[in-house]
Specification:
Blueprint lengths: L7 H27 L6 H13 L25 H20 L6 H10 L2 H8 L10 E4 L15 E4 L5 E12 L1 H5 L5 E7 L9 E7 L5 E6 L10 E12 L15 H5 L1 H35 L15 H28 L5 H26 L1 H4 L5 H9 L8 H13 L8
Parallel strand pairs: 1-4
Antiparallel strand pairs: 2-3, 3-7, 4-5, 6-7
Helix pairs in contact: 1-3, 3-8, 3-9, 4-8, 8-9, 8-10, 8-12, 9-10, 10-12, 10-13
The structure holds flavin-adenine dinucleotide (FAD).
The site of flavin-adenine dinucleotide has 21 residues, from strand 1, strand 3 and helix 13.
């Protein structure tokens, strides 16, 4: 049976984050949008004790693994379900600030998806200790975005075989500055150990912050999520320990070698795409709730039970926004529930990302439209939510790329047959 009841630990966490969103994030959201290069240390320092006191748990996927219910039966894992609710609620507070929250983020997800148990212990444990830390993931390059197989960053073994030497350029790395320079964090860099092998040669490497040869070359000036940094990172003869390659160094051979080599990246995206979708829907909910309440105060009351031709255009718009939002959220819940159950969720991950990216853009644009000039004005946060929403249809695979993945899965085509 499908259970839509939200587990109590998640409810409590969402209540706490909602309070944080209202009292801490919203009041400074405009400031950090306007002061893009300033790091939001007041927000970071406020949220850090909470993250640390939970052993980094708020943002860990291990939340309830191994726990039992009152009858002693093992509870289903709800780590990703918890994460989706957490990310949604933080993004409801402010999506840019959410991306500055200390924790493993995309880099941590890559370690979780591709690392050995020893590597997970070594690299992920630190997020609940000491000072705030960040991790980022660098896949995109100037000539390789959607076509990830085209990456040119190389990793070659040193002569004594004890180190990897990385060379290349990565762009648009979310949280790259915080992970590479401002904390004892790390960047997971995707590089090829064999350029002739295509996808099969692609491997993830953990490059610790401050490693000589890794530099932040520039920061992007952006349309939305401006509180978060987006960095270009150069790797120049950057030497890292041999053990920092995540998983195996072996390059798979045979017909499905590319598929095998790329599995780690795909598994990372299966975990993170529903979370990007959750972030999109947090922004959409902020816009939807604000618009509904603003219009209600001005006499617009949605009459749900009556025929559409009797409703006003505004009522129909609000119902459309709500309906689309709910449909997208159900897809996210399905994607994370399958992830928690250890089932293949690639189809649902891409579906939820496509739908949520589209819904967040639709809902936030409609909000600006329905509020008229007030919506477009910087007096309210609505125009900012519209800008913040847009990225969710771009990173972690664009809407078009995720539609391709969905089509391949539904129709049974390989990536070579349908591209
Ligand atoms: C703010 C921001 C943060 C980011 N953070 C990260 C990060 O942390 N780590 C990281 O590695 N990357 C990150 N990215 C990069 C992001 O993932 C890429 O921008 C994205 O994958 C698209 O790649 P591209 O920019 O090269 O566009 P292109 O691949 O050049 O695509 C351009 C357009 O063509 C379309 N297109 C491309 N191929 C096809 C096809 N086969 N069929 C149909 N349409 C197609 C795309 O959908 C898009 O609309 C970030 C980007 C931004 C803007």
């Amino acid at each position: 049976m499908i259970d839509f009841e939200i587990p109590t630990p998640i409810k409590r966490q969402v209540q706490f984050i909602t309070m944080l969103g209202e009292q801490v994030m919203r009041p400074v959201a405009r400031y950090y949008d306007e002061h893009e290069t300033e790091r939001p240390w007041d927000y970071i320092n406020l949220i850090w004790p909470t993250v640390r006191d939970r052993g980094g748990r708020s943002f860990s996927v291990d939340d309830t693994r191994g726990s039992v219910d009152k009858d002693g039966k093992p509870r289903p894992r709800i780590g990703y379900l918890m994460l989706a609710h957490t990310v949604e609620a933080l993004s409801w507070g402010d999506a840019g600030l959410y991306l500055c929250t200390p924790g493993g983020a995309l880099g941590g997800a890559a370690v979780d998806a591709t690392g050995t148990p020893e590597q997970k212990e070594r690299f992920l444990k630190r997020f609940g200790e000491g000072e705030p830390k960040w991790a980022a993931m660098a896949m995109t390059e100037p000539h390789a975005g959607s076509d990830t197989a085209a990456i040119r960053t190389t990793a070659r073994l040193s002569e004594d075989g004890k180190e990897w030497i990385l060379n290349g350029e990565k762009i648009f790395v979310t949280g790259g500055l915080m992970a590479a320079r401002e904390s004892p964090g790390f960047v997971v860099v995707w590089a090829t150990v064999d350029p002739s092998a295509g996808r099969a040669g692609m491997k993830p490497f953990v490059v610790e912050s401050g490693t000589p040869g890794m530099t932040v070359a520039k920061l992007e000036h952006k349309h939305g999520i401006r509180a978060s940094d987006t960095a270009a990172i150069v790797l120049s003869d950057c030497r890292i320990p041999y053990d920092n390659i995540l998983g195996s160094a072996e390059v798979a051979k045979g017909d499905d070698a590319g598929h095998k080599g790329f599995k780690g990246a795909m598994r990372t995206f299966d975990a993170t795409r529903p979370l990007v979708a959750a972030s999109a829907l947090g922004i959409a909910r902020a816009a939807l709730e604000f618009t509904a309440s603003y219009l209600k105060d001005r006499g617009v009351k949605v009459r749900y039970g009556i025929a559409p031709h009797l409703q006003t255009a505004m009522e129909r718009d609000l119902i459309q926004m709500e309906m689309q939002h709910r449909a997208a959220w159900l897809l996210v819940l399905k994607a994370v529930t399958k992830m928690d159950a250890g089932e293949d969720n690639a189809l649902e991950a891409s579906m939820s990302k496509v739908k949520a990216g589209q819904v967040a853009t639709f809902v936030s644009q409609k909000a600006v439209e329905l509020l008229g000039p007030e919506g477009y004005s910087c007096k309210l946060l609505v125009e900012k939510w519209m800008r913040d929403a847009r990225i969710n249809d771009i990173y972690e695979g664009t809407g078009q790329i995720n539609r391709l993945i969905v089509a391949r899965r539904l129709l049974g085509y390989s990536s070579r047959e349908l591209r």
